[in-house]
Design a protein that fits this description.
Elements (H helix, E strand, L loop, with lengths): L1 E4 L14 H10 L2 E5 L10 H5 L4 E3 L2 H6 L3 E3 L6 H5 L6 E4 L7 H5 L7 E4 L14 H20 L7 E3 L2 E3 L3 E5 L3 H12 L3 E5 L5 H7 L3 E3 L19 H15 L4 E4 L14 H5 L6 E4 L15 E5 L2 E5 L8 H19 E2 L4 E2 L6 H6 L3
């Protein structure tokens, strides 16, 4: 069977879906691999690195895509490439079916299989395929680095002959994978860290990393069976707002990570709260692309309100593309390995397998 991958739109996505290390593993499973010329050059992976492993490199994008059985990407292919797909091909990536429903449905007549990996169930067997966790982990780390770089004071406490510099105070909103990594990173760099989440199950994790958990009464009821945060009631939101408003008065840096899968990001940091923050504070909003957790967040801009810098990017992982590509490609390899019937050399879409059933877009 043949696997192909082509470059994403480089203006918005620098990650790749197949690294040389993973190409070698696919070939060992019996796959043929075809990639577009200069596929990994921008990340330091030369065409010769792939060719030495037996990968075919081509200038003809339509040829390698059309002659493949499985196409592995980060996001959805261009409209032109989608229209040229042939029957019964399989696409694996992150396709955001909520926003791309019409495009995907238009290809249903060709019996094309779309597996969108952000839909993976949160079960033990799927952990090695969990692209959301691996990428969020890096995003949480990098958000701290970026916010600290824009904070014009020292982060750790420093005792000098001229006086003492107090440690910066960091608040992490949302204690999922990105939030927990943000807590760990900020703590390692000497900050005093607070965190809040609607799921009380996060309290122990936050405290194990050295953070102080800020809880609101009723939090224990706000977690789905899949481990995600639920949308909150108006009463809870009011309690959360009061707690945050009081806390933010003494916070230097806020890392926002709160997301609800498939929906607009919840607005948590309101303008009135920002007005009471100290001038020079920084808010880094990882939820920017989905509307943002902070009221004034704009994608790819630094907005200054009352002296507070509010930051958000289209894709923070473009600042860690090598690490992100290495993890993503391993996740996808593990998924394809589960999907592939090695004995019969074919894709086995077994809908009794929860991993396959949940990720297949119907």
């Amino acid at each position: 069977m043949r696997i192909a991958s082509t470059l994403e739109n480089q203006n918005i996505e620098k990650r790749i879906a197949i690294t040389p290390e993973i190409a070698k593993k696919y070939i060992a499973l019996g796959f043929e691999i075809s990639l577009i010329k200069n596929y990994g050059e921008h990340l330091g992976f030369k065409d010769s690195d792939f060719k030495e492993l037996g990968v075919k490199i081509s200038n003809d994008e339509s040829e390698i895509l059309n002659n493949s059985d499985i196409i592995i990407q980060l996001g959805l292919l261009s409209d032109e490439n989608l229209s040229n797909l042939k029957e019964k091909q399989t696409l694996v990536g992150v396709f955001n079916p909520y926003n791309n429903k019409e495009k995907i449905e238009s290809l249903s007549k060709k019996n094309i299989n779309f597996f969108s990996l952000e839909m993976l169930p949160r079960i033990t067997r799927a952990q090695s395929m969990d692209i959301l966790s691996s990428q969020a982990n890096l995003a949480g780390y990098k958000a701290v680095i970026e916010s600290f770089a824009n904070f014009e004071k020292a982060i750790p406490m420093m005792m000098t002959a001229a006086g003492t510099i107090p440690a910066a105070k960091v608040l992490v909103v949302g204690a999922g994978v990105a939030g927990l990594q943000a807590i760990a990173t900020a703590k390692r760099m000497g900050a005093i860290v607070f965190a809040t989440d609607v799921r009380m199950a996060s309290k122990e994790q936050v405290e194990s990393l050295g953070g102080k958990f800020l809880s609101v009464e009723g939090s224990e009821n706000l977690e789905t069976e899949g481990g995600y945060a639920k949308e909150t009631s108006e009463e809870f939101k009011k309690k959360q707002e009061d707690l945050l408003a009081d806390t933010l008065k003494k916070i230097d840096i806020v890392i926002c990570t709160a997301l609800i899968p498939g929906k607009k990001a919840p607005l948590i940091i309101k303008g009135s709260m920002i007005d009471n923050m100290s001038s020079g504070s920084v808010i880094y909003d990882l939820a920017a692309v989905q509307g943002g957790n902070a009221e004034f967040t704009e994608v790819d801009k630094i907005i200054v309100k009352n002296g507070v810098k509010i930051m958000g990017e289209t894709n923070i992982l473009n600042k860690l593309p090598v690490s992100a590509s290495n993890l993503y490609s391993k996740n996808v390899f593990n998924f394809v390995s589960n999907l592939y019937d090695k004995e019969n050399k074919k894709i086995n879409i077994n809908l009794e397998d929860e991993i396959i059933e949940k990720t297949l877009i119907k």
